[in-house]
Amino acid sequence: MSSTLGVLSDAERLFIVHGVQDDLRSDGRACEDYRHVQVETDVVSNTSGSARLRLGNTDILVGVKAEMGEPDPGRPKEGKLEFFVDCSANASPEFEGRGGEELAIEVSNALQRIFNSRSTLDLTALCIIPEGQCWVLYVDVLVLECGGNLFDAVSLAVKAALFNTRIPTVVVTADDEGQQEIELSDDPYDVKRLDVDNVPLIVTLSKIGHRHVVDASWEEELCSLARLTVGVTQKGTIAGLNKEGSGSLDPESIYEMIESGKKVGMVLNSRLKEALEKEENSKREKIGFLG
Amino acid sequence: MAGLEIISDQGYRIDGRRSSELRKVCARMGVFTQADGSAYIEQGNTKALATVYGPHEVRKGRGKIQHDRAVVNCQFSMATFSTGERKSRPKGDRRSQEMSMHLRQTFEAVIVTELFPRSQIDIYVQILQADGGNYCACVNAATLAVIDAGIPMKDYVCACTAGFIQDSPLLDISYVEESAGAPFLTVAMMPKSEQIVLLEMNSRLHADNMEKVLDLATQGCKDVFAVLDRHVRDHVSESHALMTAS
Question: Which UniProt keywords apply (chain B) (predicted)?
Fold first, then answer.
């Protein structure tokens, strides 16, 4: 993230860089440790699926809305997935007006990149009438607070919201004249779920000094000149890779970074799945922002 | 409106309230750590989030600097998924700009801006879920956020709507009642001094009924004040207990 949310003094910078060198970061974590993640799904009732995620001070709200639309002419038998990111001024006064747009586009491109592969989501399940109608999933991301590691937090929240998404079942019937009619099920519990097992998560590795860290806080992001964002699936497949920042990386360290990104990403995927399934099975009351 | 009865014969509304009852109000102050002040409010199914930054030096547009008081800067936005139909953009449309302007006027009236000359106070509000009374939820959330930021105010500002449907005034109308096409009044007021800072009505209402509706809205604002004040006092005593314990 091209964060300009604050400034660090030379002494603070040196303290962080030296800490990373000794595998002990300023909040007590080791280089490959993640911060505590809180996730809750189904928080906005007028969406098809939603999730709120808090990672340190980073706060993300994702809403998924399923609407009917026309499929792309190039892929007539598939539904569509549209990403929209809004960096709310709540996160930082700099995002006021059009201020957050650049960062928002960067994040939505990163999402597009990891969802690009056909094995990520079964889009054919979103088809209603080939070449006629399909479900369009609008995935809207709202950044409410920025405390570092925005990309990872957004991808976690998007996966949680897609897991929570319920699409109403529709029945297509043809009448006497061959006209096709779409009928929506009356039963609100008659819904389809998405299979999110292959949805990748983004792991951002920030190069600080000679080492790299995962889940950098915003202070650490200010110390890092180059970052690598890697999309990692549950099985450890790499889906999408991007180098960001003004610094440069040598190939040797890129391999190392991918390797640790893969390791962390696989753990992250299985932990998220566990947490989501646990939440679904417990009959706990929703807390939302009141907790 | 065909097929939908806003008030039943027994005098109950669609969501089971009586005509002069508010929806359930839940609030929380200090939701975020990075902002100077923040608050979250739920009024029935309407959910709003407000953050306050400042007072700080004027960042953009140095021409805005006021030598005798602080500039209040507001931005209203709605999450794209907050409404039933998806919105194509969260801010910048006419309605949001109007809302931002109203918010600015409301808060310029209550914040003691003379105490912070040559500085700026930012108030950002975000609707997360919309179910009628968006402006009211924003004003109430922003009031809590300004209090959380420790910025001096002359009084609270509380907002409430009141409508006039089927010949009777209704308090705190929801989206369904709003879309029934009947007139409704949005009122923001300072509950202790009983001064109205914002008054808006979009439809047609007979002048004889105006007083009834306005009286109900005023009472609603006072009810909202009672709830908000309790939340503020609870929040402060909780934080105080935490501070003394450590």
Answer: Acetylation, Cytoplasm, Nucleus, RNA-binding, rRNA processing
